[in-house]
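User: Okay, second chain of the day. Same drill as before: sequence in, structure tokens out.
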Amino acid sequence: MRVFAVFGNPISHSISPRLHNKAICDLGLNAVYTRICLENGSELIDRFKILKLSGANVTLPHKAYALELADIKSEMACKIGSANTLVLKDNKIYAHNTDAPGFLSAILPFGKIKTALILGAGGTAKAIAYALRESKIDVDLLNRSKDRFVDFAEFECFSYENFTPKPYDLIINSTSAGLNDENLPAPIEILSEIFSHSKFAFDVIYGRVTPFLDMSSRFGLTTKDGADMLLYQAVLALNLFYDNTLDLEKIKISMSKALYL
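Assistant: Same drill. Structure tokens below.
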């Protein structure tokens, strides 16, 4: 039996096991998928090996470690600077990123997007920024401090102190603000200015109406949480676990049934 897992901190909220185990069952695969709370990201690969995993997903805040510590890294993961999927193959651990294509699939219902603002500058922000740039969308980043902007040299980056709000089609919360609290990903004064001239709001958090989504909807924006992004990246990840030999549509149908259980 193959064993897969998702690493993160916090991780108790993750429904990845539900999605993957449903698909594993429906497709008749001999495997199981669980979740693991990992406090120290530097121990990621050690835990992977100790648990004799065949593959794993990695979420906040360990995606940079997933890329750094892997043996072989995909071109996309290297360009993004983080990985969310690890696969054991030929006794080596391969790092991939399925967040970028998963995000693009999730925002398709919004239609044409020309400009976007990402709140946060972590691993998920890297994947989203890469995806938007590859889709020819102008993207800026806004973060509390400038410390993490070293990985975003090709983008316009702002801290709260030097940011002047302007119209954006899409506002994305890539942070964990609102996951286990009632915090906003940026000061309410800045968000009020941004939302007054924007069309769409996307939160990578799923399973609850976050303060970010609640506020954006009150300003009349069309909103979407991260459920579909989770779904699409999970479909791609499971296929990677099996060396891209599975039927993507069958995985999607199966995982969709488990998404809102």
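Residues 227-241 form the longest helix (15 residues).

User: Thanks, on to the next one.
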